[in-house]
Amino acid sequence: MPNSATPNAAPPGPLVLPPWLTHAMAPLPLGPLQPLLALTLSRIGRLHPDLYGRLGEHAEKRFGIEPTDLPFAFVLEPRPERPQARAVRRLPAGLDVRIRGPLSGLIGMAEGRLDGDALFFSRTLSIEGDMEATLALRNALDDARLDFGTLLLGCLGPLGTRAAAFLRRQTGQARPAQAAPGGSSWN
Amino acid sequence: MELICPAGTPASLEAAVEAGADAVYCGFRDETNARNFPGLNFSRDELRRGIAFAHRHGVKVLVAINTFARAGAFQLWQSAIDDAVAAGADALILADLATLAYAARRHPGQRLHVSVQAAAANPDAIRFYVERFGAQRVVLPRVLGVMEIASIVRETACETEVFVFGGLCVMEEGRCSLSSYATGKSPNMQGVCSPAGDVAYAQQGGRIVSKLGGFTINAFEKDEPAGYPTLCKGRFVTPKSTGYIFEEPVSLDAGVLLPALRDAGVTAFKIEGRQRGRAYIAGVVRSFRDILAALDQGRSAPVTGLAAMSEGQANTVGAYRKAWR
Questions:
Q1: How far apart are the first and last CA of chain A?
Q2: What is the pTM of this model?
């Protein structure tokens, strides 16, 4: 039975890099990115081991991440033994999952600041391939509470870790849970 | 009025607590709950820690064990009930008569809620659950109007909980077989409607085509807001027309009806979305907490502004204000 749905104006979507910047980055070599990606992935595995429990068998899958506003993409193989992430000019064939969207949307979803379903509804994000693996990755990342700023700064050693803690305090991300108004006993 | 909020992961549970939930509902990582999606839900240890966290903040935790037990595998549902009670659950949300009977007999002091999956939509059904199993609350299916809910509240001695936001089942939950027909897996038994393993999306130029179990169920044009791959919100070709037959891709938003639902005698408002991310949970819970605060202070309810979080980026008040039968 048709229903009286009320379409609403959507708020602005995630930030998209301007085409000139995407174009300007195109000639840059990908080599320097590879060790940074490897280090970041290694830190994620070390700091968030529960992530693999949620990924389960899907940790063995190959995920293609394609930021639509970057001139390169990423192939992620999160397996617990020898996890790998590498930057590529073009996603190869044979991947289990391909996820496309603006870089800020992909990072926002990975950090749990943006809702993946909402990005899909707005057509900001598109997905093809193994949906079980996609959901497992999304849910595992959402629970892990990643902060890529902290992860990247942490790669710089103790000074970076202190800088990340300072930034977290400044941005309010270290806020403890506030008491909610509920609480009367039932049983 | 209580605000009952979803959590699919420990991080989501904490987000719901921080955003102002009175209670959080969640389930185990198996087929005993109706949101059995990959990477979602709680281990036994995560539930224990989640309940401890919630209780430290004065928030209750309700554990959904609300699928219908598979013949020959009842032990899985029994152990879920036993472990949820042992973890300190404030209430169990159950649907299957066998699980209700087991919980009432084995854990007589445990508070029991009748899940929306039980489709208890009239006073006779609700009285049965109250008298037979001591159920103290029923979650009403999303097929009733506000006046019907008021009538049920008057005729029963049971607390009522109603959905006010999120994914909208337009069928009587627990009795829908659309997804089972297409995939061979039952939302009511395996705990997943439109299982991810049976879903496929294909990009065709700017369009996306969604399929479930090999059936094409929708095609969204470039920039057209998309919806979940559920048959009840599929677009069908019939000899008379092409379009939505049951429902459009849309989410429930009954924010404007909270005063009417409160006046109808409803005990608790429930937000759907255990499968959603922390951003959804925090945003929606805060929004409804603001509405409840406004109502408590005698102010008019603010508009939720949650369309961007909604399926198809559109909202409806669903059957609460239905003009059809």
A1: 41
A2: 0.91
